[in-house]
Amino acid sequence: MDFSVVAVAREDDSPVDEPLRIAALADRLGYREVWVGEGPTWDAFVLATAIGAATRHIALTAGPVPVSVRDPYTIARGAAGTSAVTGGRPVGVAIGTASKRVVEGVHGRPRTRPAAALEESAAALRHLLHAEPGGPVTPGSPFRRRLAPPGGPLTVAAFGDRAIGIAAAHADRMLLDLVTPEQVRVLRGKLDAAAQRAGRTAPTLAAWLPAAVDPAPASVRQVLGSIAGYLTVPGYADMFRAAGFGEAVDLATAGAERDALIEALPKEAAARVGLVGDLKTIQARIDAYAEAGLEEIALVPATAGDPGGTRTLTVLAADLRGRGELRDQPQ
Predict the structure, then answer these.
(1) Bridge-based pairing state of the strands 173-177 and 2-8
(2) Which residues form the Luciferase-like domain (predicted)?
(3) For the chain, percent helix, then strand, then coil, each to nearest 5?
(4) pTM of the model
């Protein structure tokens, strides 16, 4: 199992500069990669550049970036620019369709043909992220590429069958979010089958998972809040029903407010889709995810009650290093 850290994931009321502190800590502790999500507050490439300038070793992945609001060249240019101004640091890109709430509610753009847009972007980025300087920026363009390729992987966020097929055909890594080990097992099987049909080795399977060691009540509430935001997202609603959260899904569908949804979710829900509890419990959960076929856990540290995720990331780094699953701390 590989481990990385998510500096910023879903939008909440955390301090806007907290992702910089999370990333700096992850770098000091020896985590190999930090993910820089994009949302209403942060542009992923701007924040990734700031993180690259403030850290020494850690690799960067920007996104998932919504494909309905950025064209493939703009995405590739952003990654190459971040790499260029951070001393050639490897920069990967994650893409996804995002929800209608994000695409239309934040960007004011129509979310039409999202799967087709995902496929077009993935196919183009598979080339653009590795294209050397000198060639046209896009086929037939009079402008030439001047920046070196960013050198990181292409990740496709996927959940539905078509998105999984796109990841299998084009990506280096497929990303899941807020999933149980049981769902990982099902999606692992779909990914392997899709990769076989595409004639490719299956991409690495990763998941963003909430993490909180010995969590304070505020940390549990923060994780429940992240679940609440997904209760009506197509595909996730069925998953959460299957996980036993049907009452909360019904309330969300009826338009209940976030606080009411948090109250409706059982406290145990935080541990069903992540690594929440004491260290022994978390170790068992890691083993369950690995047995189900997950290859990388991207830790999304709860920071309410644990500023910067300091306790969680530090305790887990020490444990993972002892188990040989984290590199030695850099000097």
Answers:
(1) unpaired
(2) 1-295
(3) 45, 20, 35
(4) 0.95
Q: Which of 62, 75, 55 is nearest to 118 (CA)?
A: 75
Report the DSSP beta bridge partners of residue 277.
213
User: CA 60, CA 57: separation in Å to the nearest integer?
Assistant: 10
pLDDT, one tens digit per residue, over 200-230 is: 999 999 999 999 999 999 999 999 999 998 8
Fill in the amino acid letter for 23: A
Give me the amino acid identity at 154: L
Residues of the chain where predicted confidence (pLDDT) is lower than 50? none
Side chain identity, residue 69:
V
Q: How far apart are CA 169 and CA 163, in angstroms?
A: 10
Q: Which residues lie closer than 8 Å to 250 by C-beta, 6 or more apart?
A: none
Q: Which residues pair with 158 in a beta bridge?
A: none
Q: Which of 211, 216, 305, 224 is nearest to 263 (CA)?
A: 224
- 76-128 pLDDT, tens digit per residue, is 999 999 999 999 999 999 999 988 778 888 888 889 899 999 999 999 999 99
List the helix and strand counts (H, then E) for the chain. 14, 9
22 neighbors 301 (Cβ within 8 angstroms) = yes
Amino acid at 140: G
CATH superfamily of 2-211+273-322: Luciferase-like domain (3.20.20.30)
| One-letter amino acid for residue 186 of the chain | V
> DSSP string covering 85-131, please?
HTTS--EEEEEE---HHHHTTTS-----SHHHHHHHHHHHHHHHTTP
Which tokens belong to 50?
A: 């700031």
Token readout for 189 is 């099987």
| C-alpha to C-alpha distance for 42 and 73, rounded to whole angstroms | 20
Sign for the pseudo-dihedral over CA of 101, 106, 109, 115: negative
pLDDT of residue 324: 87
For residues 291 and 189, the answer to whether their CB atoms sit within 8 Å is: no
Q: Domain residues of the chain, as ranges?
A: 2-211+273-322
Specify the amino acid at residue 128.
L
Distance separating alpha carbons of residues 174 and 182, to the nearest angstrom? 17
Spatial distance between the Cα atoms of 223 and 230, rounded to a whole number of angstroms: 12
